[in-house]
Amino acid sequence: MWSFLSFLGLLLVTVVSAISTTGDRLLVILDDVADKASYSQFLGDLEGRGFTVAFETPKSESLSLFRLGERAYDHVVFLPTNSKGLGPNLTPALLLQFINQNGNILLALSASTPTPVSFVSLLAELDIQLPADRTALVVDHFNYDTASAADKHDVLLLPAPRPSRSDVKDFFGGSSTSLLAFPRGLGVTLGAGELLTSIVRAPRTAYSYNPKEASEAVGSDDLFAAGEQLALVSAFQARNSARFTIVGSAEMLQDAWFDAEVKTVAGATAKTDNREFAKRVSGWTFQELGVLRVNWIEHHLNEEGVANMSNPEIYRIKNDVTYSISLSEYAWSSWTAFAVPANDVLQLEFSMLSPFHRLPLVQDAAQSTAEAAVYTVSFTVPDQHGIFNFKVNYKRPFLSNVEEKNTVSVRHMAHDEWPRSYAISGAWPWISGIAATVAGWLAFCALWMYSAPTEKKKENKKTQ
Amino acid sequence: MTANSLEALASAGKGRSTRTLLRVVILCLIAGAAIASRLFSVIRFESIIHEFDPWFNFRATKYLVANGFYKFWDWFDDRTWHPLGRVTGGTLYPGLMVTSGVIYHALRTLTIPVDIRNICVLLAPAFSGLTAFAAYLLTNEMTTTDSASAGLLAALFMGITPGYISRSVAGSYDNEAIAIFLLVFTFYLWIKALKQGSMLWGALCALFYGYMVASWGGYAFITCLLPLHAFVLICMGRYSSRLYVAYCTWYALGTLASMQIPFVGFLPVKTSEHMPALGIFGFLQLVAFLSYVRSAIPGRQYQTFLWLFAGGTFAVALAGLVIATSAGIIAPWGGRFYSLWDTSYAKIHIPIIASVSEHQPTAWPAFFFDLNLLIWLFPAGVYLCFQNLADEHVFIVVYALFGSYFAGVMVRLMLTLTPVVCVAAALAISSVLDTYLVAKAPAPPQVHNAEDASEASVKKASKGGLKSTSKPVVGVYSYISKGVVVTAMTIYLLLFVLHCTWVTSNAYSSPSVVLASKMPDGSQHIIDDYREAYQWLRQNTREDAKIMSWWDYGYQIGGMADRPTLVDNNTWNNTHIATVGKAMSSREEVSYPIMRQHEVDYVLVVFGGLLGYSGDDINKFLWMVRIAEGIWPDEIKEREFFTPRGEYRVDGEATEAMKNSLMYKMSYYNYNALFPPGQAQDRVRGVRLPDVGPTLDTLEEAYTSENWIIRIYKVKDLDNLGRDHTSAAAFERGHKKKKATKKRGPRVLRVE
User: Fold this and answer.
1) Could you list the residue range(s) of the whole structural domain that residue B667 is in?
2) Which residues of chain B make contact with A91, given a CB cutoff of 8 A?
3) Which of A158, B151, B418, B647 makes an SS bond possible with A180, Cβ 3.0 to 4.6 Å?
4) B721 with A411: Cβ contact below 8 A
5) Domain that residue A404 falls in
6) Hey, which residues does B190 pair with through a beta bridge?
7) Predicted-assembly ipTM surpassing the 0.90 threshold
8) Which of A99, A121, A240 faces B737 most closely, judged by CB atoms?
């Protein structure tokens, strides 16, 4: 009943408004509200997907990310601004608080406008490094658009991004022939943290330099980064699954580069796939893609003749137990059954201090529906009493974090749960020994009582 | 007081039934006095469970009352020793809880609804009355005459001696509360069985021994003392069939009874502590066999036979014991046992045992403090036992020797010495009084057994000149000397009562959960920080929030705050305690993963610096360090907590390890804010603290009680952005992150 109600409620919510799972209030911050014309298609797409878009300038008095301690917006898009700082309403601490309260941020940088200081320190906290002078430019002499950047080579043409590992779901790649234009962008380098993932990496031949200082050549010492170390579009997903995306080139989101004609070095002409890519990047950032939901978790005793209660708080050692978890994934507008990528497994840990079991969860087709996939595993509780956790810790790039912990106690055998002594063959000698003693004692008593004492010896027998 | 009424009283005391009535009345009065003197704490404070262990017993009793006996028997406690849990039903002595449970249910059947807490609080005083009665019975077995004066005196001493009161004031709901009664009563039954050679009394002795085993780990004292007594008797050539019957009945039934307790289980046939009893049991069979053989074969052959047989058996038994011990069938002596022989053993090898103050060797003033007058009457009583050395007197002598030794090595074993001191002292005093209170000279062969000291003093002036008679009886017959001795004894006894009352009221009646202090105007001021903080935990944290604290407070947190703890006073798992010790004595970066792994939500420390409360965690800190060092000698070093000059300091001169330890930081966090700049003072250690207090990155202060005795910290979750806590906290404080992108050293590349 409850699940039906909540499902109904969910259905209602989906139909009525947002297509994002966390809300539809979107704030776009840009220097001049008039600038939004050049992003009209991008913003139009967002509105078309159900977001209510508000616009603010960084210095605006009315701008506040929070209202009464709660987030005033669910998502923020930062388009390049010329100002050096962002003012008191957008300090790094406030932006961090916004992320900590599950707000999502899409940050578009540009090589032509210096990055505000606020972002520099925010990105430093996320372990993302910007080029030292904040205005570096990424160029590639082998993959550029010959039509628009024949001299400067600063409009990169990139193939559709592919995940770096085979077990990561592909959210951003389009068709294999499509090209992305990355005009006059900024590359960043990412630290080693596992919360960071690059969506688009620069080609092996790209490098970053400062056009104002080093116009001729870049020495290896001055080089900020080159090749695949340069992340052009990168993603950060916090532990609470709030998302933060950096797009190195704001221009690639402009109308001019949506469906533009470009010409590769090889001479082929093609249409850019920027519009589709922008949709996917913003969709991922604003929790429309790759959002996992745990519908329910259930574990129960898997033994015959026992009351099969759901989610008991206590098990006994060596019990057989079944654990099931129902997972859904949100894709654009609806919840679908979550399928674990081909080379990946969803695992269950049964742990106390350290895992005693780490078992792959297998999809149970009988319980799964189109909206929810049920993963299940049966196992025997270890021969160790204690307070254990059923733990599912599924954290993958681009998928929101699943960290579920259900605590149960595992008790020892109660005094009446051991096999009876006569059921153990090793105990038979002892049991027969007891029987023999009892029989002997009774026989002795009988003998003693029915044998009349002889008259003579009566006085010198003294046993007590 | 007129002479007439005295005469009437004296003559009334002669009738047998009147005497019995008098004894009953006196015993009832003694029991009343014993109970009354234990009620100081209830009257001064309130009906509250005291100290540490009683809180666990109280919690267990509540569980028993709520869930019934079988649930209690199989109780797996998942709210202590997180995440290991404790098989509580199988690792406790259930006697105390079952006793209270039975009383509770009995009162309810009688439709007297008494709160289980009040039963627990008042159980110890109630049993002290029974103990006095048991002491009376035991002492009566020692006297050959019909006079009950020794017994009554022993009952009185047992009732009010501080050595016993220390563990049995109202609210001190601990195993000892009923165990001392059982100890004395078991001894009484043993003497009874031995004297009569009766299987019935032997079986009763075994029954109460079983009850004792169910109640207190100190039952091993009986397990060793009775065989020893039997052994001494055999060595003295006092083997008799009475001894055989009494001992074998007790051993066979008592061992079976003790093995029914899950916590004891197969220990009686497996551990060295129980081997003397088993050995003497076997030895008695041999002796019985030999005495049978002696009656069957002639003397000379018997001598040879005896020597060969005895030597052979001894060799075989010893070899068997050695082999069984080395093969691991019989467990070697435990650490607690070794510390009984070598008082510095525990300090070197098992810090967890040494860290308990009641396991320290006894200081000599403690004997006088706890036993007062009795301690110097005690040898006299033992000497009197030598005078007419019957089997039961041998028992008192053996008990006195061993009790004194054990009381000397461990403070808490003063408790097992107290009964024999009371018995021996009562024998001595009654002998003195019986001698000097006889008003008449022995010339008329009429024994005057006066009860009242005043009677002698009234009459002493009227008679004299007995010395000059030429009777062969020697002794002191002058009324003056009699009067002096009797008066002196009376004054001593009165002083003893005064001392007992004073000690009970001042030293042993503090619940230690609630502290009392005097205001400048002399009125009492209650410091209730413990309960305040535990109540805060109870009301403001999730029900399964795990609290990490040093093990001393584990039982209290479990009992008062009802929250799971990591370690408690049960101390069954040294490694787990060492883990907490390591978390407390390491840097935050080391402690935090430990706390995460153990799912700690809150950390509780006791800090006495503001109030001058010396039992705080900083003073206990070295024990944490030592216990942790025992497990991780490479990571925690006690030496690092001392300055190069060997001082244990907490001020500006403190060592780096000390300043960076979690315990130090938690104790002194924000403490500076309480004082004007530069004047922060620690009143326990009496030092001035550095101007800049410690910073905490991985914990945040959650609660500090009124007098800062209890401080509770919440363990922060992992940083949402994946930073370490130091940099996250630095960012919070507004420090800019240093740019680490200067091109020194090789470039760090990201690998995907």
Assistant:
1) 526-732
2) none
3) A158
4) no
5) 290-411
6) none
7) no
8) A121
